Amino acid sequence: MNLKDSNTSTNNNQNFVEIQGYKYKIYSCGTVVDLQKESASLGNILESKELLSKYHPEVLKLSILLNKSQGLKELTDAQFIASEKRLYYFYQTLNNIKKFANDNSQLNEIIAPHGKIIKPDVVKGIKVSFVAALNDNFNTSLAISDFLQVFKYSNALLNNANENPLHKLTTLNKICKDILTTANLLGILLEDPEVFILGIKEKYIKLRSIDMKEVAELIKTRQEAKSLKNYKLADELKAKLDQKGIIVQDSQFGSGWDIKELFF
Fold it and tell me: Rounded to two decimals, what is the model's pTM?
């Protein structure tokens, strides 16, 4: 189906967005693209109170988009959990980009005249791939797969200390803007990254009865051991945290922690 042939009628409950000459119909209740048969199942995604008590609404939306399902009843908990992990990864990446931008806020004043896109083909391909995927019989799973590749590149760029920070920031800002523009049309990545991440962490801490007071003490002791260059003890404490379902992440930006179960 070609998006040029989609219905362009309007009413009070619908909104139209145009990307590269193609028009998309969005329901205000869920900001979900309406393309004939897909619109009914996606538009009614908020009907299941039981699922909403277990999963964030965007997790349910992403599950349908990834599996090209006609409704929530066709999907399994395993598919919802996979979508939750995927969405968590997306939000983590967006949050890392946000942190990098905040840490390099002084560069924002000179981005316009001097910053350049490191890999123009990656950035230009975001909207092009999105339109192509939707023109391929509304292939939303392909669109999400394209998002994943862009997020992987973004994380690799964030961790590349050899790249010019000005050009990194310019590139990441552009990626973030274009990803959000396209993802929001599908009703995902609408939340503040920090709020979404905290909500999912709190969910798993409660589900797995993780003692965060004990975890905090172990992390603090490990940081002290590292500062004293007692790497053997630091590794032992990291392994102990791992057994409790907590992974410790060391990077050039410092150390952090996360829920082990949320990673593939």
Answer: 0.80
